[in-house]
Write a structure and sequence with these properties.
36% helix, 15 helices, 18 strands, 447 residues, alpha/beta, seven-stranded antiparallel beta sheet
Length: 447
C-alpha cells in the first residue's frame, strides 16, 4: 500500500470493527499496546503510527495460550492449551483448557505450517466458538514453568529430541490450575489443593509395594560433587562457591542428561564425562581450561568419591523389612553394576528385586520403564509407592505409569505446594511411611 493511501486504507478496513488494538510487532509484557474505541481516536493515533505497529480487531473473552511442539520433520508432536489471567502482561494464573474446535484448528494450523520446535499461539474464541489468533511466537513461552507444573515439559523434550535424537514424548497433563507469584507456583486441582495421592492415607490396604530410586535417594556421593569440584577449581586457581557450582551442575544436567542404558563401556563413560565436564567448565566460566579441568575432575572422582547410604536409610529399611505384607524394590536409571553396588553398600538384602535402566532398555521419566518393571516383578502400579529425588523423572514419570510418588527433596529445591507427597530427609520419610502403613490410619481421613 503506498504511504499516501495507508491512512485511508486503515480507516476503511476497521470501519465498524471497534474496539481495536495497536501494538508493536516485536514486544513483550503488553508494553506499547493501545486500546482504540472509535474511528476518531484511530485517526488521531495514525499520526504517530510506527512502521512496525500492528492493528488488530479486539475480541472479548478469555485469553488462551497454546503451546505447540513440532519435531525435526515439522510434525506436530504435542500441544497444550491454557486459559490464562494476566497482570501487567504477565501470566498470574492458568488452567488447562480442552475444546474440540480449538484442537481441530491447531491440527489444521500445524499441517499447513510444518514448523519446527516450540511455537506459541495466543488467541481468543469468538462468539461462534471459533479461535481467532492474535499472536504467533516462535519460542518457549513466558509461562513455561506453569506448563511444566501441569505436566507439559517443553524444554526437557526439546533437549531429548533435538540433542539426544529421541522421539518426542506426549505429555500426560493434569487437569489443574496454576497460580504464580513473584517467587512461587501453586498447583490446585479441580476440587482440592491437597496432593491427589493423599487419598492413600484413608486406606492402607492399597499399598503393597515400595519402590526406591538409588542415586540421591538411597545413596549419595561422599564427598559430594560440589566439594570435589571446588577442590579441583582451587588447584586451577579459582575460588567458586559450592552454591555456584551446584547451580552449574543443574544447568548442565538439564542440557545433557546421563543415559545409563546407553553409556556402558569405560570408553563411552569417559567420552560422556569429557563432554559433560566441558559444558560444566563453560557454566563455571573457565572454558579456556576445560581440558585440564576435565582431566583433574575425572581423576578426583575416581580416587576420592564413593557411594554411601544416606543418613536414616538403613534404620528405615530395617523398620520396613520387619513389616509383613510389603515388598521393597529398587528401580533406577543405572547400569548393570547397580546390584553389586547395593551389595557393597550393604543394602541389597533389603530388596526383593533390583532393576536398572540398562537392563530394561528405557530410562525415567519414560513411563515404559515403570511398566516394564511392573511386568517383570508382578507389581501392580496402583498398589505401589515410588520414592525418588527428581520431580520429572521420579514423580512425573512414575505417576504417568500409575504409581504413587513421594519426592525426597534433600536440597529444598521445591516448595511445600508441590503436587505430590514431599519429604526433606529420611527421618520425615520414615514418619510418612509409618503413617501410610499404620493400622491406625485405616479408614481415617487426613488433613
Amino acid at each position: 500500500i503506498p504511504e499516501s493511501e495507508r491512512e485511508k486504507f486503515i480507516l476503511t478496513e476497521f470501519q465498524g470493527k471497534f474496539p481495536i488494538v495497536i501494538k508493536p510487532r516485536k514486544g513483550h509484557g503488553s508494553e506499547g499496546i493501545r486500546y482504540i474505541e472509535n474511528i476518531n481516536e484511530l485517526s488521531r493515533q495514525l499520526e504517530t503510527l510506527a512502521p512496525d505497529d500492528c492493528l488488530q480487531e479486539y475480541v472479548e473473552g478469555d485469553e488462551i495460550t497454546c503451546g505447540l511442539l513440532f519435531d525435526k520433520q515439522g510434525n506436530l508432536a504435542d500441544s497444550l492449551a491454557m486459559v490464562r489471567t494476566l497482570k501487567n502482561g504477565r501470566t498470574i494464573s492458568a488452567s488447562v483448557y480442552e475444546n474440540t474446535q480449538l484442537d481441530d484448528f491447531i491440527n489444521s494450523f500445524a499441517e499447513k505450517t510444518k514448523l519446527i520446535g516450540p511455537i506459541n499461539l495466543q488467541l481468543r474464541m469468538n462468539q461462534a466458538g471459533q479461535p481467532l489468533v492474535f499472536e504467533i511466537n516462535p519460542r518457549l513461552s513466558g509461562s513455561t514453568l506453569m506448563r511444566i507444573a501441569v505436566g507439559f515439559n517443553d524444554p526437557a523434550r526439546i533437549v531429548e529430541h533435538f540433542l539426544d535424537d529421541l522421539p518426542v514424548r506426549r505429555a500426560k497433563v493434569d487437569q489443574v490450575k496454576v497460580y504464580r507469584t513473584e517467587a512461587t507456583l501453586t498447583v490446585v486441582g479441580p476440587k482440592t489443593s491437597q496432593p491427589r495421592e493423599k487419598h492413600l492415607l484413608q486406606n492402607r490396604n492399597e499399598i503393597k509395594h515400595i519402590v526406591f530410586d538409588c542415586g540421591g535417594t538411597l545413596l549419595h556421593l561422599v564427598p559430594d560433587r560440589a566439594q570435589v569440584c571446588q577442590e579441583v577449581l582451587r588447584q586451577l586457581g579459582y575460588e567458586i562457591s559450592t552454591e555456584q557450582i551446584n547451580l552449574a551442575y543443574e544447568l548442565v544436567n538439564f542440557s545433557l542428561r546421563h543415559r545409563s542404558s546407553l553409556v556402558r563401556t569405560a570408553k563411552e563413560k569417559q567420552d560422556f564425562y569429557h563432554e559433560f565436564n566441558g559444558r560444566l567448565a563453560i557454566a563455571l566460566g573457565i572454558s579456556s581450561q576445560h581440558h585440564e579441568f576435565n582431566s583433574l575432575l575425572q581423576r578426583a572422582f575416581a580416587d576420592r568419591c564413593h557411594w554411601s547410604p544416606l543418613p536414616g536409610v538403613i534404620s528405615t529399611l530395617n523398620s520396613l523389612a520387619t513389616r509383613a505384607g510389603y515388598t521393597l524394590h529398587v528401580l533406577a536409571n543405572w547400569n548393570s553394576g547397580l546390584s553389586d553396588l547395593l551389595l557393597k553398600t550393604e543394602l541389597a538384602h533389603f530388596f526383593c528385586s533390583i532393576h536398572h535402566s540398562e537392563g530394561l532398555g528405557v530410562e525415567k521419566p519414560d513411563p515404559d520403564i515403570f511398566l516394564a518393571f511392573a511386568g517383570q516383578t508382578g507389581v501392580t502400579p496402583q498398589q505401589a509407592l515410588y520414592i525418588g529425588n527428581e520431580y520429572e523423572a521420579d514423580v512425573h514419570g512414575s505417576r504417568a505409569a500409575g504409581f504413587t510418588p513421594i519426592l525426597l527433596d534433600l536440597n529444598h529445591r521445591y516448595t511445600n505446594l508441590i503436587d505430590c507427597m514431599l519429604v526433606r530427609d529420611w527421618h520425615q520419610l520414615r514418619e510418612l511411611l509409618d503413617s501410610l502403613l499404620s493400622e491406625e490410619t485405616k479408614g481415617k481421613s487426613v488433613e
